[in-house]
Amino acid sequence: MPDLSLLVFVGLCVATALTGVIFRPGDWYKTLDKPSWTPPDWLFGPVWSVLYLMIAVAGWLVWSNLGMSVALFLWGAQLVVNGMWSGLFFGARRMDLAFIDVVVLWLTIAAFIVAAAQIPLAALLFVPYLVWVTIASALNLSVWKRNPQAA
């Protein structure tokens, strides 16, 4: 029987993912000038679903092996910062604040990878997340700079 504490980590990730449901791109985002390398809209749901599962497992691995630790604190911090992005970008339409948020998210993810290095699988599970957030950061910056009137 799997450890039920894993469900807590999955639940926290689902709660964070709901911010993306509450603050949807909508018509405003469709009108913005975006770079040609913007991922298609249909890709975001599947990618984030896989990433959130990996984030949950990484957090659970840290909890199971290290308990309360710097790595677990960073895991929680990245989840909070992650959850703020959709509200800033799509809800408040503050691409500038969303960019600051995504940079903080990137730094928190990177710090988690370092802090969780003693649990290699936990650290490794965050690498695709870091790659995706790197792309998201560049996209956020590009859209913000291309649409100064919308910020």
What portion of residues belong to β-strands? under 5%
CATH class: Mainly Alpha
Rg of Cα set: 16 Å
**What name does the CATH topology carry?**
Ferritin
**CATH architecture assignment name:** Up-down Bundle
CATH H level, superfamily name: TspO/MBR protein
**How many separate helices?**
7
What is the end-to-end distance? 50 Å
Task: Give the class from helix and strand content and strand pairing.
Answer: mainly alpha
What would you call the shape?
elongated
The major β-sheet equals: none
Number of domains: 1
Q: Order of SSEs, N→C?
A: HHHHHHH
Helix proportion range: over 70%
Q: Could you name the key traits of this structure?
A:
151 residues; mainly alpha; Ferritin; elongated
Write up this protein.
The protein is mostly helical. It has one domain (5-150): TspO/MBR protein (Ferritin). It is built from 7 helices and no strands. It is elongated, with a radius of gyration of 16 Å.
Set down the secondary structure blueprint.
Blueprint: H1 5-22, H2 26-30, H3 41-66, H4 70-91, H5 95-115, H6 120-125, H7 127-146
Helix pairs in contact: 1-3, 1-4, 3-4, 4-5, 5-7
What's the short version?
By secondary structure, the chain is mainly α. The chain is built from 7 helices and no strands. It has one domain (5-150): Up-down Bundle (Ferritin).
